[in-house]
Design goal:
Number of strands of chain A: 4
Order of helices and strands of chain B: HHHEEHHHHHHHHHHHHHHHHH
Strand content of chain A: under 5%
Distance between the termini of chain B: 21 Å
Strand content of chain B: under 5%
Structural class of chain B: mainly alpha
Radius of gyration of chain B: 22 Å
Oligomer: heterodimer
Helix content of chain A: over 70%
Number of helices of chain B: 20
Number of helices of chain A: 41
Structural class of chain A: mainly alpha
Number of strands of chain B: 2
Shape of chain B: globular
Largest sheet of chain B: 2 strands, antiparallel
Largest interface: A-B, 128 and 139 residues
């Protein structure tokens, strides 16, 4: 079976349990089990070849640009781990079937489990370190789901988040480390990396790479000081603890260290970091384990301790130590998984895992007792079990390092013996009690068969190590040290009288004594003040979260003035910085002499601006001042021979001011004082700089000659565009597409106004409006007769002017845009003079439709040119003569201009209609007829309220 | 015949939107049919254009038959096609969601505004003219404002006003920048400006740089780079969540504009600006990423969490943009497409949560209807957003990390990216476990089952929309090889601008 398929099988199979649970729990478990079994068979088919020293590879190209490929390889190390993962996985699946309660969603559980399994298999088979990273993070994610499986338990949620945070952090560090490693070697292929020991260790980047990779490995394998998440992950259902947190996932870090052992180990840095962390973890874990009353807590810390032991062996850096590490990985997986399952059985049957509430289970649960005892004794390192073998070899290796190491590991082993015995003595021995939460009894066969199989292995490996695991240890050991030239070691129960045996005996004897005086030590332990990792972690995360909240709120305080101040300041700063970085020569263009008209305009505009600043709290007055500024700009355009711009600006000003006045009617007339003097000075300074900057920019640009594309427009306006008014030809032809966009902006704005007001009038704003009281004295004669008559007389004239401006636009100042505005103003006047209701009655077209029609006409004009095989908006024009008229021109641009015209009129009128719709929602009476007199004329506003 | 298809992504929605207003404004079903039909067609056209552009030729469409630089041109190259495809796929998914949840009934003119919005987006991605880009920015701004305040409400209106004012300030600066650039170079066509910028007299350099810098600030506003991102958080939080999902593309328009202008006109080889754009973007990009992810951890409200995650992802993407090398631009493009879909997925889920809980605050409430389904969708979306494997976020992050390795201060950049990822993971895990897990802790305290009374809502279309987006993310992961190949070609085309300039200027 292809290696890629072996890794993919659990992922593909993860869908099955979710579906098969509908067929019952047995079917679900069976389906899950067969997926794992299939993968295991596929793996074992490769075993003979691998044990003979072959390396099997599969390669699938995935993302060659990055060097990320789905390449897998299988050597001894991979075989060992994949075998453990799939083999123990099979047992766990069996066990979980009987462990989980009926109310637990089993399908979900098995799905998560298979996802995890796939990720694990992926890690150990990856030949590409980027691919390995992917699987690595996937184990963090799937274990997050598994730990949080009982989502109603706070311990589950918190444990899951803690595990994710810690292992996630390690995973991210690992990403950095792997990228550096790949950078040094120039390849992300593991097989290539493993051949470049010299290159890696001589690189300047070796130390950072090593640190980051170890951070990943230590967090995953719960090494000090990152060990604290593992005990909290025990909130997961016991099958998960047995599988992830003893047999497989926590070994991923060990796997990584073993995998990269040939290229990373052997330096002082490696020794001190890895062996040091391992030693501390081993001793500390063993000590804490002794004082845990929770069975799973005890096992969790004992796992921490054993992981430390293996880490230490890898850290020592000698070939023998590495082989011993491999051997202990096998042994630990067998007895620890079995122990977790017995703990689960006890919890399941006695409904408690608290050692203080247990004891005397020997006769009540004989099968469990036997299994737990054998596994515990192996953990304690008692012959003839497998734990003894590897422990002896470990002690010897530690003793070889030096006295201190030897002493420390003996102490660790002593505590290890103590807690192992405690698991037997305090749980199974002693008097029977009558206060168990439930009546304990042995579980059914399905539940104890899995640990039983493991316990059989524990004994067999202990008795016949060479037969059972000899070849595997040899192949794996060879893979770890990266050479087929294995050091001398002997897997045997008896090595003669040596230092290791002495240490072992001392550890057992002292361990027994420690357990004898357990109550005494416990008292001391409980009185001691220890830092609680969970509290520290929680406090830290909480602090970060609150800090984050503070920073975020401080930064985003919602004050628009501040946001705009920052924006303006940034624009000024960046603009200025960019300017200073380049060379600047002042312009050479002759400046015009000063004359009277511009000086007057200049004075007016300055005055109007200053007055606007002074009166800006009075909204109506400042609007008038702004209008003055707009007027002067229009005059400026006219003075500078730009009649089109002047006309446009003028009509835009008129329409804007009218609409703003109408809108202001319903708003407060004064702007409240909201900013402090200090802030006003700050904002003034920023605005001043921005203004000066813009002035400088304008001056610099206007005083230099430049070579623009406008000559083309001037030249082509008549022959190419058919019009002598180049501004209009630019608008409807050269850059007609811009105009098309701009009328859409206008149309969308009007539709937006409609949508906003429509929504607002359906909300609470409508009720506020209903209580609206005019805050100005109202004129008695709302629709003065003079104005009504005048506007009606003017209307036909204005419309004619509109048509005239429209038609001549192509050649003389004018065009659809201006015409639209002029006509809109004429219509606005009708509404203002005679009232909305009266005017609306005489208007048959829906404004939405006018806008839409305008845009469609403009667009279709553009599309029309497709039929002549010309690009969108290509214009065509020709000259016709119909007697008795003189020759005239018809241009497609005129149709486009009609679209512009309609959109402008529709948009302005829709905005007006919506403003008046607000008015009709108020309690203020609305006229039905033109020239009506308000009966409440000339009464002060205050009195009106009385009605 | 390809030629007219280039403008089809602009013309189609610009015709469909007024048609919806004109003919369908009283009938929601007809509006939906027209709107969905147009969007499906847009997807089709985008695929066609992407296939066409993949060959590597730069297609130019001269509007009104006026040659560049005198008229306006639309230009289709690989980058434009990629942006179009991404936009149209996102638009279709969001539209399906909106139809499935009846969001479009909550206010007037949703579909018309939606189509106009699409027109603004596609136009901005196709145009080869800076002033025309301004026009399309205006269209998408005004249409997005309409969409943003769709349905009304006090907070939404407040946020809307801030959104529109802030962006209008940006538009104003855009005009200043354009005036400066036109004043110095005398052209608005990007390709032409690229040529002219090369041969400008020394004395004009400072002014040209100023124009380029102001333009960068404008695009940074759109791209939500710190400290110009202030429009984003409240907008995304208070906009209708499906609209926020569509807005995932808005920031990318800013990114697109930066990539386009600062490779074509003011590229790394341009003497006048040199490395200025990259030097400026890099630090603020890092800060943006960090501040964004800190906002994720701050929590408070699921919509806010997602909004800040979006800011953070923009920071990550801009780190790659700032390096301005073909490799980094490839990384930026991949990350951009990914983060757009990821943010959209999360915003749609925010809406699912909000419509069932009545709030998207993170307080503990009893479990919502369909909690398992929504929780798994959230999990997938969060994985994508945080850049965890196996989804494309992880690949994107690797690409970004890999592409900046030659940059100065790479240790800092890597450290920042990895730490920001960790903050995001913790933040998203907190938010998710609060809403989807902690809810179950209260089952016992909700004996009368008040929350259970909230009926399950129709999920077929909404879930299909979310799954569709997730499928795109998965596709980007599985087909990472071909996708990155296309993007590598795209980046290559960007840094060898002679083909683009030649096509536009008719050499």
């Amino acid at each position: 079976m292809s290696l890629a398929l072996i890794a993919a099988l659990p992922f593909l199979g993860a869908l099955l349990p979710g579906i098969m649970i509908r067929a019952g729990r047995n079917t679900c478990a069976l389906a899950t089990g067969s997926v794992t079994a299939l993968a295991l068979i596929g793996l074992l088919l490769h075993a003979p070849a691998v044990l003979q020293g072959e390396v099997i590879q599969t390669q699938i190209t995935w993302m060659p640009l990055l060097g990320l490929n789905a390449n897998f390889f299988l050597d001894g190390l991979g075989l060992l781990f994949a075998g453990l993962i799939l083999g123990i996985g099979l047992l766990i699946i069996t066990y979980a079937r009987f462990y989980l309660a009926k109310s637990d969603p089993m399908g979900q559980f098995y799905t998560y489990l298979l996802l995890f399994q796939g990720a694990m298999v992926g890690i150990v088979l990856s030949d590409n370190i980027l691919l390995l990273l992917i699987f690595w993070e996937l184990t963090s994610l799937s274990s997050f789901l598994l730990i949080g499986y009982w989502r109603h338990l706070p311990e589950g949620r918190q444990g899951a988040r803690m595990a994710l945070a810690v292992t996630g952090m390690g995973g991210l560090a690992l990403i950095g480390g792997m990228l550096i490693l790949g950078h040094i070697v120039g390849s992300y292929e593991l097989t290539v990396i493993l051949e470049n020991r010299e290159l890696i260790q001589q690189s300047d980047l070796y130390a950072p790479a090593l640190l980051l990779i170890l951070l990943g490995a230590f967090t995953k394998s719960a090494q000090f000081p990152f060990h604290f998440w593992l005990p909290h992950a025990m909130a997961a259902p016991t099958p998960v603890s047995a599988y992830l947190h003893s047999a497989t996932m926590v070994k991923a870090g060990l796997f990584l260290m073993a995998r990269l052992w040939p290229v990373l180990s052997g330096t002082d840095l490696w020794f001190w970091l890895v062996a040091g962390a391992g030693l501390i973890t081993m001793v500390m874990g063993a000590v804490i384990a002794l004082f845990k009353d929770d069975l799973k807590g005890l096992l969790a810390f004992s796992t921490v301790s054993h992981l430390g032991l293996i880490t230490m062996l890898l850290g020592i850096g000698t070939d023998v130590a590495a082989v011993v590490a491999v051997f202990h990985i096998i042994n630990h997986a067998t007895f620890k998984a079995a122990l977790f399952m017995t703990a689960g059985i006890i919890d399941h049957e006695a409904h408690t895992r608290d050692i203080k509430r247990l004891g005397g289970l020997r006769t009540l649960m004989p099968v469990t007792f036997v299994l737990a005892t054998v596994a515990s004794l192996s953990m304690a390192g008692i012959p003839p079990l497998n734990g003894f073998l590897s422990k002896e070899m470990m002690l010897e290796q530690a003793a070889d390092v030096g006295f201190f190491f030897g002493l420390m590991v003996t102490i660790g082993a002593m505590f290890s013996v103590a807690y192992s015995l405690r698991y037997i003595v305090h749980v199974f021995l002693g008097p029977k009690r009558d206060d168990y939460p439930a009546k304990p009894h042995d579980p059914g066969f399905g539940m104890w068969v899995s640990p039983a199989l493991l316990v059989v292995l524990v004994v067999l490996i202990g008795l016949f190590p060479n037969t059972i695991v000899g070849p595997l240890v040899a192949t794996t050991g060879g893979a770890v040290i990266g050479s087929t030239d294995l050091p001398y070691y002997s897997l045997a129960l008896w090595h003669g009288f040596n230092i290791a045996l002495l240490m072992s005996v001392a550890a057992v004897a002292l361990g027994y004594l420690v357990l004898r005086f357990h109550p005494l030590f416990e008292e001391l332990w409980n009185d001691a003040r220890r830092p609680e990792a969970k509290e520290i972690f929680d406090a830290l995360i909480d602090l970060c979260a609150r800090g984050a909240d503070r920073v975020t709120n401080l930064l985003h305080d919602g004050a628009m003035t501040r946001y705009l101040a920052i924006f303006t300041a940034s624009a000024v700063l960046f603009g200025f910085a960019a300017f200073m970085g380049g060379t600047h020569g002042s312009g050479t263009r002759e400046t015009l002499p000063m004359s009277v008209v511009p000086i007057i305009g200049w004075l007016l505009i300055i005055t109007a601006t200053i007055v606007t600043l002074m009166v800006h709290r009075n909204r109506l007055l400042s609007l008038v001042m702004v209008a003055v500024i707009g007027l002067i700009i229009s005059i400026g355009f006219a003075y500078l021979s730009a009649p089109d711009l002047a006309l446009t600006q003028l009509s835009v000003e008129v329409v804007t001011v009218i609409l703003l006045l109408l809108a202001l009617h319903y708003l407060p007339k004064e702007t409240p004082v909201e900013s402090t003097p200090g802030r006003r000075i700050r904002d003034g300074a920023i605005a001043g700089f921005a203004g000066l900057g813009v002035t400088g920019l304008l001056y610099a640009i206007m005083t230099r000659d430049h070579d623009t594309i406008s000559w083309f427009h001037l030249e082509q306006s008549y022959p190419g565009g058919g019009g002598t008014n180049v501004v209009n030809v630019i608008l409807v032809d050269f850059r007609g597409f811009d105009t098309f966009g701009e009328i859409i902006v206008l149309g969308v704005a009007a539709l937006g106004i409609y949508a906003i007001i429509d929504a607002a009038l359906r909300g609470p704003a409508s009720r506020r409006l209903a209580n609206f009281k005019p805050d100005f004295r109202r004129a008695g004669d709302r629709h003065p007769m003079m104005m009504v008559v005048a506007t009606r007389v003017i209307l036909p004239v204005a419309l004619t002017v509109g048509v005239f401006i429209f038609l001549r636009g192509h050649n003389e100042p004018g065009g659809g845009f201006i015409a639209g505005l002029v006509v809109s103003i004429a219509l606005l006047m009708q509404y203002m003079a005679s009232g909305f209701t009266w005017a609306q009655k005489r208007q048959r077209f829906d404004y939405h439709a006018i806008i839409a029609a305008g845009i469609i006409i403009a667009a279709l004009t553009g599309v029309g040119s497709w039929f002549y095989d010309a690009p969108f908006l290509s214009s065509a024009f020709d000259y016709y003569t119909i007697p008795p008229l003189s020759e005239f021109e018809l241009a497609s641009a005129i149709a486009f201009d009609v679209g512009v015209f309609l959109t402008v009129v529709g948009s302005v009128m829709l905005a007006l209609a919506e403003l008046s719709r607000i008015g009709r929602h108020t309690s203020v009476s609305v006229n039905k007829d033109a020239m009506d007199i308000d009966p409440r004329a000339d009464t002060p506003a205050a009195k009106v309220e009385g009605h | 015949m390809l030629s007219h298809w280039i403008v089809a992504p602009i013309i189609l929605p610009s015709l469909m939107a007024p048609l919806i207003v004109l003919a369908a404004r009283y009938d929601m079903t007809l509006q939906r049919i027209l709107s969905l039909g147009a969007t499906v067609a847009l997807v089709g056209i985008s695929i066609l254009l992407t296939v066409a552009a993949a060959g590597g030729t730069v297609e130019v469409y001269e509007l009104g038959s006026w040659p560049a630089p005198f008229g306006i041109v639309m230009v289709l190259d690989r980058l434009s096609a990629l942006m179009l495809l991404m936009t149209s796929l996102l638009a279709l998914a969001v539209l399906v969601y909106v139809v499935g949840t009846d969001w479009d009934r909550r206010g007037a003119h949703f579909h018309a505004l939606y189509q106009f919005q699409l027109m603004g987006l596609t136009g901005a991605m196709l145009t080869g003219d800076l002033f025309n880009l301004f026009v399309f920015f205006e269209i998408l701004l005004i249409a997005s404002y309409g969409l943003m305040v769709h349905g009304g409400g006090k907070l939404r209106m407040q946020a809307g006003v801030q959104y529109v004012i802030y962006n209008l300030a940006g538009s104003t600066l855009f005009v200043f920048a354009l005036a400066t650039l036109y004043g110095v170079t005398g052209t608005l066509n990007m390709a032409d400006m690229a040529i002219r910028a090369q041969s400008l007299p020394e004395a004009d350099m400072a002014l040209l740089r100023t124009g380029a810098a102001m333009l960068l600030v404008v695009f940074a506003v759109k791209g939500a780079l710190l400290p110009l991102h202030f429009w984003l958080p409240n907008t995304y939080v208070h906009a209708p969540a499906p609209v926020a999902a569509l807005f995932a593309i808005m920031t990318k328009v800013g990114a697109y504009a930066i990539i386009r202008v600062y490779t074509l006109v003011f590229g790394p080889d341009a003497a006048v600006t040199g490395s200025m754009p990259g030097d400026w973007i890099m630090p603020v990009a890092v800060i943006t990423m960090v501040v964004g992810m800190i906002g994720v951890l701050a929590g408070g409200n699921l919509a806010r969490v997602v909004a800040f995650a979006a800011i953070g992802s923009m920071g990550t993407m801009f780190i790659a943009v700032a390096a301005f090398t073909p490799e980094s631009t490839l990384a930026a493009l991949y990350y951009m497409v990914h983060s757009t879909f990821a943010a959209a997925v999360l915003f749609l889920i925010v809406d699912m949560v909000q419509s069932r809980r009545g709030t998207c605050g993170l307080q503990v409430l009893p479990p919502i209807a369909q909690t398992g389904l929504i929780a798994s969708l959230f999990f997938a979306g969060a994985i994508a957003m945080a850049g965890m494997p196996p989804l494309s976020g992880f690949l994107g992050k690797l690409l970004v990390l890999d592409s900046v390795r030659e940059q100065g201060g790479v240790a800092w950049i890597w450290g920042a990216i990895l730490i920001a990822s960790l903050i995001a993971i913790v933040g998203l895990a907190r938010a998710g476990s609060q809403i989807f897990w902690k809810a179950h802790a209260d089952e016992t305290t909700d004996p009368d089952g008040t929350m259970a009374a909230i009926p399950a809502q129709p999920v077929a279309l909404p879930v299909a929309a979310v799954l569709g987006l997730l499928a795109l993310i998965v596709a980007m992961t599985v087909a990472a090889g071909p996708v990155t190949d296309y993007m590598q070609a795209t980046a290559g085309q960007l840094y060898d601008s002679s083909a683009y300039i030649g096509a536009v200027m008719g050499h």
